[in-house]
Design goal:
By secondary structure, the protein is of the alpha/beta class. A hairpin with a 4-residue loop joins β5 and β6. α1 runs parallel beside α12 and α6 packs across α7. The radius of gyration is 21 Å and the shape is globular. This is Alkanesulfonate monooxygenase.
Length: 406
């Protein structure tokens, strides 16, 4: 059993003062639990899913990008018109869109959504996936390209007069002024855990993205990216985005029954390469550092901290964000608050039963976290949720966690 930390009412110095929630938009009902043949976009399902995010109180939705997926810009534009409040996050690979064109597209989206656009730049963690669309740069140079891309996005949005550029990756003459965003420059997010990712993200990104890791390990990574930002002379540090795949039920015991059922189905789906991008993943050790770290954590332990479960990462070869938080809504909300206390202020939660989970999180998890944040703002002290719902810090939870393991 993991030793419980002291749960006093003092708000940790590392704690974020606000939390915003992200989901990932799904285009059809095919899931890792139940992969089904699909034409790609089920419009009725997509509309229902996006409405569930708006109704559930999410703040953002990520529109993912891959060589075999729908175009993230087009889908983001649809999200913008189907919602009034949700901020679409466009996943964009610099190799697929010239930076000045990317700036134009993003600014157009920002105007259409009245200032809601966000971009998440993906430098590329797999040589094989990059090559599918003609990109043969080695990984370290891909991050150098991202760095140049960020500079050009911001200049395209803000330069009042035409400018020319001749860099390592891009060259053009007499561009501008470009098409401007709705108001402020569009927030730029990047992720990754290589040295190059930390350097570029710390120096230039508005948001730095992580997958769910054990608390102390993640705090070390946050300190690292913030130290790079300070060394670069930044006074506004990158916001921290962390992603989980929660598995919830009315009680911790029921959540663990669901989790063990889920992981068997997920393992079977992955073994058959039957779901989405799994068909394109390479066997063996993943190339990207984030997946390598996830597998290393999974090899050492199934469970960390209050509710972090790594078996879902192990059975998928850490193919994308795959670590779970398991428990009742109260336990999972308390676990999310642990990460808020360690410095996360953008929390992405997306499930395995995608639509049903999005609805359940909005009804049962988000309100608990927001209630605690409101309590802290009003009183200057932590509430009792984390002290009362101990998860893996209590013996019963550990018994439920191991009871269904095969």
């Amino acid at each position: 059993m993991t030793s419980a930390p002291e749960f006093d009412q003092k708000i940790p110095e590392t704690a974020s003062r606000k939390v915003e929630f992200i989901s990932l938009s799904h285009l059809n009902p095919s899931t890792e639990l139940n992969p089904i043949p699909t034409c790609g976009i089920d419009l009725g399902y997509f509309r229902e899913y996006v409405r569930s995010l708006e109704d559930g109180g999410y703040d953002y939705t990520l529109l993912p990008y891959g060589s075999g997926t729908a175009d993230s810009f087009v889908v983001a534009s649809a999200v913008g018109q189907l919602t009034e409040r949700i901020k679409p996050i466009v996943a964009l690979r610099p190799n697929t869109t010239f930076p000045l064109v990317g700036a134009q597209k993003l600014a157009t989206l920002d105007q259409l959504t009245e200032g809601r656009a966000v971009v998440h730049l993906i430098s590329g963690g797999s040589d094989a996936e990059q090559a599918r669309q003609g990109d043969y740069l080695p990984k370290d140079r891909r991050y150098a390209r991202t760095s140049e891309y960020i500079d050009l996005l911001r200049r395209a949005w803000t330069e009042p007069a035409p400018f020319s550029h001749e860099g390592e990756f891009y060259r053009f003459d007499d561009f501008g002024p470009g098409f401007a965003p709705h108001g402020s420059p569009i927030p730029i997010s990047i992720g990754g855990q290589s040295d190059e990712a930390f350097r570029v993200g710390g120096e230039k990104a508005d948001v730095f993205s992580f997958w769910g890791e054990p608390l102390d390990d993640l705090r070390g990574e946050i300190d690292r990216v913030h130290a790079i930002a300070r060394a670069a002379g930044r006074t506004t540090l990158p916001r921290i985005w962390v992603t989980f795949r929660p598995i919830i039920a009315a009680t911790d015991e029921l959540a663990w029954r669901k989790a063990h059922e889920y992981v068997e189905k997920i393992a079977d789906t992955f073994g058959k390469a039957a779901y989405g991008k799994q068909r394109l993943q390479q066997p063996g050790t993943p190339q990207n550092v984030g997946s390598q770290r996830a597998l290393s954590f999974a090899e050492k332990s199934d469970l960390y901290d209050r509710a972090l479960w790594t078996r879902t990462a192990a059975v998928t070869n850490a193919g994308g964000a795959s670590t779970a938080l398991v428990g009742s809504p109260e336990t999972v909300a308390a676990a999310i608050l642990d990460y808020v206390d360690h410095g996360a202020d953008l929390v992405s939660i997306r499930g395995y039963d995608t639509l049903a989970d999005a609805v359940d999180y909005g009804r049962h998890v988000l309100p608990l976290v927001r209630q605690e944040i409101a309590h802290r703002e009003a009183t200057g002290r932590r509430g009792t949720l984390q002290a009362e719902h101990l998860g893996n810090y209590a013996e019963d939870y550990r018994r439920h966690a191991t009871a269904g393991r095969s």
